[in-house]
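Researcher: Sit down with what I've pasted below and flag anything odd:
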Amino acid sequence: MYSKGIEFLRNLDQLCGFQRKLVIKSGLETDEKYGYYPVERPIEEYIKQGVINLDKPPGPTSHEVVAWIKRMFNLPKAGHGGTLEPLTQ
């Protein structure tokens, strides 16, 4: 399982164009009751615990976008932190 986490990081680096040396402090496995490796995390966990970074286009309000997300993922609750308005400082 440990090697899948390292493989994920190397693939991510390659995708982003990074060339870094990974320093592995320990080869011990993490007990799965404490979480998931990103490559094995169920989509339900991403939805339950996740954050969506969204570049909202002009037009719809922040409230509308949150309502769309709730409908798309069948969520009882969702919200936004800060403004979603473009060019707002």
Summary: The longest helix spans residues 2-16.
